[in-house]
Amino acid sequence: MKTISSAVSLARRAGARAFAAGFLILAVAWQPAGAQDFMSAKEPGAFIDELGAAAIQHLTDKTINSEERRSRFRDLMHKAFNVPGIGRFVLGRYWNQATEEERQEYMRLFEELVVRTYADRFSEYSGEKFAVGKVQRDAERANYATVLTTISRPNGQSVRVDWRVRQEEDQSWRVVDIVIEGVSMSVTQRSEFASVIESKGGTVKGLIDTLRQKVQGA
Amino acid sequence: MRFPDLVHRRYRRRGFRACAALALFALAGGLGGCATVPPKDSPAYQNYVERNDPLEPMNRYFFEVNRGLDELVLKPAAAAYNAALPNPVQDSVRAFINNLRTPIVLANDLMQGEGDRAYITLSRFIVNTSIGLLGVFDVASEIGLEYHDEDFGQTMAVAGMGSGPYLMLPLLGPTNPRDLVGKVVDFAFDPLTYVGGTDTRIARTSVDTVDYRHRNRKTIEALEEGSIDFYSTVRDASRQRRKDEIRNRRPQDDQTSPGVIFEDDQ
Questions:
Q1: How does pLDDT run across B160-211, given as a tens digit for each residue?
Q2: pLDDT reading at A106 higher than 90
Q3: Chain A residues closer than 8 Å to B254 by CB
Q4: How far apart are CA A134 and CA A31, in angstroms?
């Protein structure tokens, strides 16, 4: 304790404000480099491992507000997830029916819904451990794999999470689905969106209106 | 006849039969029973077939009934349960109920030919009933013998029986005809069917439900928060969850069920 407090007072005397500001800039400048590192993982298992570490490091910080957390979540999501691919998958059979404007507006709202649904969950983080297990490569498609992971709570309960990943043209891996205890987020959302479209007279516009209301309300 | 036509007919017939069989329920409730079948060439038709929910209007009605009951009874009960009992006591409640279920789990482990799992179930029962003081303490988990559930609905699924259409029943929640029959069979393996009266059974089921609701409150909350059609989310998530239980929580095999693949990669 004594060394810490004396170090602090030493730093203060040395005009530490400039130092702190410099450190902050360094940290901010360093971040993209770090993120690039985890995106360069050659193996799906290493990619998910590093993604998990990055999420815990950047998103679980208790001192940041909800807005900051959402913006960090959005950055991480764009780097590590194939967002356009997931959005298109989730719209399913109705993608072909949508006009170009509808597709763009839908993608914007879909992304917003995902950010609002998941980002705030990271504030509830309480020391869960993230462990990567087996990696299953698809037999038929070399560019797909499933990474099996377990998230264990300090009280002993654990949750199984499978990450479906796809290799992009630039050889980097990106997440296309998260399967929690056997429940696929992409598949569940796809049938939900289809359900909404059909209850709104079979038009994508009906879904867009519902999404807009949801996103504005949240 | 083209192959897809065959498939469609089969589904349509199956849907119709299920609908006719359950129209009784709908009539009794004075509700419009069956969903309208969309025209064959539309994307809606494909979705209708995949959804496997010909009784959707009735199911949605009961879903709202259940949500009302949840809000009025179950949610407050779960909150009170949590306030009244400290976590270790809640764990003992869960351990005791799970231990009572042993005959059901064991019988279905054996019927599915899962020898290793049957062995785990039996060892757990011996350890927890003796050292665990009649099942109040889950000692077995601490020595690596983790609890797993089984029921006759799963046994029928493993034997290759389809689930039939989706059903949302008042109080019972999401199910299907196969699992409903399974529940009746499991009744025969439940020790409380033979020991203790109706009151004991009701008490056990109530505590079981309240404890389950409390343990899953965050998941339920998260699902509802991210959803724009909660009925559809629950239908799909509960069905996938059930398939996962039937696979004994083993990860999906990419040969039989490959998971998400983008259209351009197919």
A1: 999 999 999 999 999 999 999 999 999 999 988 888 888 899 999 999 999 9
A2: yes
A3: 136, 138-140, 144, 146
A4: 29
| Per-residue CA distances from B150 to A42, B94, B123, B126, B251 (Å) | 40, 16, 16, 18, 17
Quote ipTM for the complex: 0.80
- Assign A37 a pLDDT band (cuts: 50, 70, 90): low
Mutate to test the interface with A, among B52, B260, B264 (most CBs of A within 10 A): B260
Instruction: Tell me how far the alpha carbon of residue A161 is from its chain's centroid.
Output: 14
pLDDT of residue B224 exceeding 60: yes
Position A195 pLDDT exceeds 80: yes
Indicate the pTM of the whole model. Answer: 0.81
Burial (CB count within 10 angstroms: exposed 0-12, middle 13-18, buried 19+), residue B140 = buried
Q: Which of B227, B233, B244 sits opposite A181 (nearest CB)?
A: B244
DSSP code per residue over chain A: -HHHHHHHHHHHHTTHHHHHHHHHHHHHHHHHHHHHHHHT-SSHHHHHHHHHHHHHHHH--TTS-HHHHHHHHHHHHHHHB-HHHHHHHHHGGGTTTS-HHHHHHHHHHHHHHHHHHHGGGGGG--S-EEEEEEEEEPSS-TTEEEEEEEEE-TTS-EEEEEEEEEE-TTS-EEEEEEEETTEEHHHHHHHHHHHHHHHTTT-HHHHHHHHHHHHHH-
Residue linked to tokens 């297990």: A133
Q: Spell out which chain B residues touch chain A, with contact meaning CB-CB distance below 8 angstroms.
A: 38, 42-44, 46-47, 50-51, 87, 222, 225-229, 231-233, 235-237, 240-241, 243-245, 247, 249, 251-252, 254-255, 258-263, 265
Q: Could you say which DSSP state residue B172 is in?
A: T
Q: Are B44 and A202 an interchain contact pair (Cβ–Cβ within 8 Å)?
A: yes
The SS3 of residue B148 is coil
| Nearest CB neighbour to A160, from listed B229, B249, B259 | B249
Answer whether B236 sits within 8 Å of A188, measured CB to CB. Answer: yes
Each residue of B130-145: pLDDT tens digit? 998 999 999 999 998 9
For residue A217, what pLDDT is reported? 76
Contacts of A183 in chain B (CB under 8 A): 237, 240-241, 244
B223, closest residue in chain A (CA to CA): A117
Residue B11 confidence class, pLDDT cut points 50, 70, 90 = very low
